[in-house]
Design goal:
The complex is a heterodimer of chains A (147) and B (888). Chain A is α+β, with helices and mostly antiparallel strands and 147 residues long. Chain A has one domain: Beta-Lactamase. Chain A is 41% helix and 27% strand. Chain A is globular. Chain A starts with a strand and ends in a 9-residue tail after the last helix. Chain B starts with a helix and ends with a helix. In chain B, helix 16 packs parallel to helix 18 and helix 24 runs antiparallel to helix 25. Chain B is globular and about 100 Å long. Among the domains of chain B are: 91 residues, Alpha Horseshoe (Leucine-rich Repeat Variant), CATH 1.25.10.10; 136 residues, Coatomer, gamma subunit, appendage domain (Immunoglobulin-like, Sandwich); 115 residues, TATA-Binding Protein, CATH 3.30.310. The longest helix of chain B has 18 residues. In chain B, 52% of the residues lie in helices and 14% in strands. Classes of the chains: A alpha+beta (147), B alpha+beta (888). The interface between A and B is large, with 63 and 65 residues. Chain B: Oligomeric complex that consists of at least the alpha, beta, beta', gamma, delta, epsilon and zeta subunits.
Chain lengths: 147, 888
């Protein structure tokens, strides 16, 4: 299960937060944990450099893209390798939508499109699409180019 | 060149001034959502409002029921617009709002229309939305379309239907299971993701059918799997088949091993790792099988991608737990990872090295770790400390180096958990390595000279009191202990006084000097410290009111363990009301239970993924005792000795769920039947259980307490009590019949009809066995307890347990039959071990202490033999334990 996808700005404020199968009372705990993880490790990180950690039986892969920090959390079959795949799709889509590694403002400007991308990538904890070109078409309700 | 730079700065200024969501407020956005009702829709504006709604929801904002309904109804109007961008947003916001069952109807016709649309993308999205918001009845209506969609030539449509199927399988399994032909076809799809989703769904549909899974794996491992993700799934399912099928007995080959090994050469890293992990986790894996997997993992240790390094070292770390020798080839690569920027990787590397290192490399390794420790967080340090502890137990001759390392890090900065881990490790090493005792105690003494944690100081003082007097020169510890009396807070001072007394009791030549020190404590400012000093002085014969106790009494008092759980003692003391009758410590329940009183409810409320920290153990026996003593029929039964775990008397998912808790008293047994009515349209009244005790001769029914009313989904209890010969561990079998009056309930009003019908429901049989009279009471040091019990009432015998699934399964079965407390973690059997010793302790009815030493062995065809040695305070109890095993 892909338990969560979160976007924070550099100050640790939430931009997007999508949990799947995580009870509401545990969410705050995860938010705090991830912000701390980021502030400990992401300083001076290069764009899209991947970071990885595990906490109990859960894996976390995270990265920074422009002024936005991205975290994906998973367990069982969504181990660090599967999560790396997921975060790769997410970062490529965000770059695609924004045209470059986004500033916070640019990210918020493209907020609706980014939500649509996430909707195509992860559906209730299951990875659905992995190809950014296909996703770019799907969010405009265009059929994939390769069929 | 100058131009773009200036432009960029302009951008920045603008950004700082304005964000599209500045000052966003829920109320205002809900107002804005009224544009959805405009006769002339403005798609751009509507999309913006939806984006704002999404922003609010993604920030964790929630809408009240009324707000959500209003927005949802407004959103449904947007289906009138033909704007494609807006339509895509509408699909998303409907899913986010997840309307309730009675509202869904508004939108189903629009979605059904989209689902039959010629435009593929409308179809795919409509399927996703419908499946998200649908219930069982609607699902049967659209099932036909979904089946078609699964084999649709457009992969997006097929994936949408398949992923919907994966989700719907949780709620409507019987419907989704009917799609297996279509899903089977989709597994052969040329589109990579369709194949991935289809494979996942097909496996879930068939997971309980071993043969079908085996066939699926056999056909796919020979065919082509296009997506790496699907390949990973296939590897996982293959390992499951391997686990269930075992070795090929004729050739000794492992089925599918060649396939796994082939995957090690796949071009996708994900697949390589999955295969390597599958191989390392094979049960009874040989070193020949392991080698290729370890080789590829070794290559990844020096990858430039942190995720791959992490995955490789994490896998090797696991392998090192069971096959340390197989990993030694990677030692050099792992050593270079100690300086990895990612601290998770570095810590895994260190702890793996600590497992794989040999005796000669310990010193070199410790040097590297010392540098590393200063720049990692406490939680990583704790992992390292634990690994060092295991290493020291493995190479006892190296205790000097390792003990020195522990004492050095003990002096450095660190939080409580970290310091506690170090102190615990030193204590364990002192216990297990006699040579390490003196130096270990000395390090602990140094630590308490400057320890900021009261808890740790008192723990160490307690330990010092037990171990210090037995050393060659006990006098050298006195200074450290008495310093605590001068320098520390009251809690630590009181502990120090107790420790001094222990030295006084054990070491005769120190006694006069201890008296001098204890007398000084009589003037302490704290009550507890003064009281303890007075008590010990008098007990040891150094006070004015010395009591006449034998030397043994004194030592028993000072060193004997408190044989009741502290939590139980605390509760009993709180419940005790001051009166003429003194508090009786024998009235404190001895059983330590960790299961909560909350009985199992209807299934479906599964614990969730992230695993919040488990709540601490709660004493349920007190709650049971309180409840039972409040029932007049049972209040005269005396002290509750033990309550069993709930035993299920019905299968899962039946109309009425019943489990029973057996409450054991000296001369009585009470059965507490926890009943749950799982039918919303029924109300049960006058619920009782008719118990037939014809196969339980020593028991006779004395009373029962019926349950007046049992509404839907609110568990309640009915009780039946039996008399049995006092103090005798009587056993027997009871058959049970649930009897009640059932009344129909009108689902719309929730009111029950006046008249009911009498009905019965057969439950499973229930047994009272000897283990029900056994309390799970642990001992802190099994070897000491075993030695001090002596062989007077010992009985040893050997048993054949027949063919078992594994050694671990045999051990856990025997532990469960005996109902005793496993000691020192011996209930855990390392995988692949051929023999195992398990230590158990308990207290049998009549307050008789029992210790059990179980030695297991397993041979090739999985035949398990067991030697059972029992020591107890009573020969008949030792015999009873053997009878339990002989009859079980």
């Amino acid at each position: 299960m892909l338990l969560a996808v979160l976007f924070f700005n550099l100050e640790g404020n939430i931009l997007v937060e999508r949990f799947h199968g995580v009870p509401a009372e545990e969410r705050l705990h995860w938010r705090t944990f991830l912000v701390k993880l980021g502030s400990d490790n992401l300083k001076g990180a290069k764009n899209e450099e991947l970071f990885v950690a595990s906490h109990k039986s859960v894996y976390i892969v995270y990265s920074v893209l422009g002024d936005v920090c991205i975290y994906v959390v998973g367990k069982d079959e969504y181990d660090e390798l599967a999560l790396a795949e997921v975060i790769f799709v997410i970062t490529s889509c965000v770059k695609d939508v924004c045209g470059k590694p986004p500033t916070e403002r640019l990210f918020l400007d493209k907020y609706g499109k980014i939500c649509l991308c996430l909707d195509e990538i992860v559906w209730k904890g299951i990875l659905e699409n992995t190809d950014k070109d296909r996703i770019r078409r799907l969010i405009r309700l265009k059929p994939p180019a390769d069929i | 060149m100058a131009q773009p730079l200036v432009k960029k700065d302009d951008d920045r200024d603008e950004e700082a001034e304005y964000s599209p969501f500045t000052g966003i407020e829920k109320g205002a956005v809900l107002q804005e959502a009224r544009v959805f009702n405009d006769p002339q829709l403005d798609p751009r504006r509507c999309s913006q409002v939806i984006t704002k709604l999404l922003y609010l929801l993604n920030q964790g904002e929630t809408f009240t029921k009324i707000e959500a309904t209003e927005v949802f109804f407004a959103v449904t109007k947007l289906f009138q617009s033909r704007d494609i961008g807006l339509r895509r947003m509408v699909y998303l916001i409907i899913k986010e709002l997840s309307p309730s069952a009675d509202e869904v109807i508004i939108v189903t016709s629009s979605l059904m229309k989209d689902m039959n649309s010629k435009t593929d993308m409308y179809r795919a999205n409509a399927i996703r939305v419908l499946c998200r918001i649908t219930d069982g009845t609607l699902l049967t209506q659209i099932e036909r379309y979904l089946k078609q969609a699964i084999v649709d030539k457009n992969p997006v449509v097929a994936s949408a239907a398949l992923v919907s199927g994966i989700h719907l399988l949780q709620t409507n399994p019987e419907i989704v299971k009917r799609w297996s032909n279509e899903v089977q076809e989709a597994v052969q799809s040329r589109a990579a993701l369709v194949q991935f989703h289809a494979l996942a769904l097909l496996h879930q549909i068939r997971q309980n059918d071993r043969l079908a899974v085996s066939k699926l794996v056999t056909s796919l491992t020979r065919g082509t799997v296009r997506s790496p993700l699907a390949q990973c799934l296939l590897i996982r399912y293959t390992s499951q088949v391997i686990r269930e099928s075992g070795l090929n007995t004729q050739t000794g080959d492992r089925p599918f091993y060649d396939y796994l090994e082939g995957c090690l050469r796949h071009k996708a890293e994900m697949v390589i790792f999955e295969a390597a992990r599958a191989i390392t986790e094979l049960s009874g894996v040989t070193s020949r099988e392991l080698t290729p997997a370890i080789t590829v993992l070794q290559l990844f240790l020096s990858s430039s991608k942190p995720v791959l390094r992490f995955a490789a070292i994490r896998t090797l770390n696991k392998v090192a737990m069971t096959h340390p020798m197989a990993v030694t080839n990677c030692n050099i690569d792992m050593e270079s990872l100690i300086s990895d920027q990612n601290r998770s990787i570095a810590t895994l590397a260190i702890t793996t090295l600590l497992k794989t290192g040999n005796e000669s490399s310990v010193d070199r390794l410790m040097k590297q770790i010392t540098n590393f420790m200063s720049d990692i967080a406490d939680e990583f340090k704790i992992v390292v400390v634990e690994a060092i502890r295991s290493l020291c137990l493995k190479f006892p001759l190296k205790y000097r180096t390792l003990m020195n390392f522990l004492s050095n890090i003990l002096r450095e900065e660190g939080g409580f958990e970290y310091k506690k881990a170090i102190v615990d490790s030193i204590v364990i090493l002192i216990r297990d390595i006699p040579d390490a005792k003196e130096s270990g105690l000395f390090h602990l003494c140094e630590f308490i000279e400057d320890c900021e944690f009261t808890y740790l100081s008192t723990q160490i003082l307690h330990f010092l009191g037990n171990e210090g007097p037995k050393t060659s020169d006990p006098s050298k510890y006195i200074r450290y202990i008495y310093n605590r009396v001068i320098l520390e807070n009251a809690t630590v001072r009181a502990s120090a006084v107790s420790t001094l007394a222990k030295f006084g009791a054990m070491v005769d030549f120190l006694k006069p000097r201890i008296f001098v020190l204890l007398r000084r404590c009589l003037f302490d400012s704290d009550d507890e410290v003064r009281d303890r000093a007075t008590l010990y002085l008098n007990m040891l014969g150094g006070g004015d009111d010395s009591v006449d106790g034998t030397d043994k009494d004194v030592k028993d008092f000072l060193f004997g363990s408190l044989d009741v759980p502290l939590v139980n003692l605390e509760t009993s003391l709180k419940n005790y009301e001051p009166s003429e009758e003194p508090f009786d410590i024998d009235s404190v329940p001895r059983e330590f239970k960790s299961q909560a009183l909350a009985e199992k409810k209807a299934p479906g409320k599964k614990p969730t993924g992230l695993g919040a920290p488990p709540s601490g153990p709660t004493s349920t026996i007190d709650a049971y005792e309180k409840m039972l003593s409040s029932i007049p029929e049972f209040s005269s039964f005396g002290n509750l000795i033990k309550s069993s775990e709930p035993v299920e008397l019905t299968e899962a998912e039946t109309e009425y769920a019943v489990n029973v808790v057996k409450h054991i008293y000296d001369g009585h047994v009470v059965f507490q039947y926890n009943c749950t009515n799982t039918i919303p349209e029924q109300l049960l009244e006058n619920v009782t259980v008719i118990v037939d005790a014809s196969e339980a001769e020593e028991f006779s029914e004395v009373s029962s307490k019926l349950l007046r009313s049992l509404p839907y989904d609110s568990p309640k209890q009915t009780f039946v009590a039996f008399e049995k010969p006092a103090g005798v561990p009587a056993v027997g079998k009871f058959s049970n019949m649930l009897k009640f009056i059932v009344k129909e309930v009108d689902p719309s009003t929730g009111e029950a009809e006046e008249d009911g019908v009498e009905d019965e429901y057969q439950l499973e049989d229930l047994e009272v066995v000897a283990a029900d009279y056994m309390l799970k009471v642990g001992v802190s040091n099994f070897r000491n307890a075993w030695e001090s019990m002596g062989p007077d009432c010992e009985r040893v015998d050997e048993y054949g347990l027949g063919a078992r699934e594994s050694l671990a399964e045999a051990v856990s079965a025997v532990v469960n039959i005996l109902g005793m407390q496993p000691c020192e973690g011996t209930e855990v059997v390392p995988s692949n071990s051929r023999s195992h010793t398990c230590l158990l302790s308990g207290v049998f009815m009549g307050n008789v202490k029992v210790l059990v030493r179980l030695s297991f062995g397993i041979d090739g065809p999985k035949q398990v033999a067991m030697k059972l040695a029992v020591r107890s305070e009573d020969q008949t109890v030792s015999d009873i334990i053997h009878e339990i095993i002989a009859s079980g």
